[in-house]
Amino acid sequence: MKKGMKRVAIALTMMAMTMTGCAGCSSDNDSQEPTLIIDPVVPATIELTRAEREMVGHSNEFAFNLFRTTTKTAYEGENGLNQPKSIIVSPISITFALGMLNNGAVGETQAQINKVLGFGETGADGINAFCNKMQSAAPTLDPKTKVMIANNIYLNKGYELKSDFVQIAKDFYNATPESSDFHDGKTMGVINQWAADHTEQMIKEVLNPSTFNPDAVSYLLNAIYFKGSWTKKFDKAETKKEVFDHAGLTKELTYADMMHQTATFEYGENDNYQALRLPYGNDSYQMTVLLPKTQKNALPTVPTTEEWQQLNQQMNTVVVDVKLPRFESNTDIDLQDIMSALGMPDAFNPAKADFSNFCYAPTYIGLMKQVAKIKLDEEGSEAAAVTVIGMFKSAVPDEPEPKIYNFHANHPFLYVISEKQTGAIFFIGLYTGY
Fold it and tell me: Most buried pick, 6, 64, 301, 349, via CB within 10 A?
């Protein structure tokens, strides 16, 4: 790899269907009066109708609901409450995966998926249109930021998908089924290679012998790749070791490599948070960091969609003294209970799931999980998320103020990577220092 780390964000989603009951800028640190860096490249735009804008709003509501439920359950594992691990998830990856699968669902199963994803009455057609537009337009927004979205379907030999489902997958997701014998000892490697090829080799294994089911009817995959650098990079010489406060959850004294710069950024705050927006490239994509004002609780409360929108409306361009930790974190979360709790339990119930528009065999979701990771440093962000959905066998079928604002992220915070013009959320995470 060349000197200077590549900035990559990746989301990869995979669904396995199993038949039921059958076999570079300089730092502003030295400037007395930091100035806003304006990129001369005019970004492309994603033209959305009023209805589609409402869909994005509902989709983001799903993102926050997903993350709120995830953070609630993620700390009940081996780390306990004294050392809550950091979390990152990719809501839009789940939207693509379930959106594609949803065209095979009918009745209450489909209605529940529509509602959970936030598309309500617009249903599968609305999800398809949203995913298609994002897949086509997102890569064109910024020549300095690389975004790729890909989908694929692997079908087990001897099974047939419904023709309408196949056509929709081709038309809206650019996915064409590939048939192979899942018992040939090669298919798992082929799927993993596809994942590697569509994530710049960052994610090389999405299935292993314990998760790959050779009796599956099909595996559906979605990969989202994001590569961007900060519009205003941090000077590595300014990065120093500083205490990271866990706010009473532990008495352990820990340190973080705290990056630092003083420059003009979009900044806002309310009673609960300070909010800082860090743009990538030509500002088509951005990371918004939400830093709790109080340290009484180390785990920040996930905002509602309304709070998120209000906070974004309160942003102003001001001079900000920024301290942000350089960090890496990873997540491996079982999503079956989480998605069921969010409102789509039937899809996981072999007696109730109805995916009869998918193939000529009854199926249900028997596995759903996401593995994700992020790396953030002076140059930008590198992140990856892998969501696995498997169908298993069943025994039963204003003017800125003239001052410098301090934004010192030395205690747990939330962050959101989103597309600026539509507001669509690609990644949402929590950094706890662990």
Answer: 64
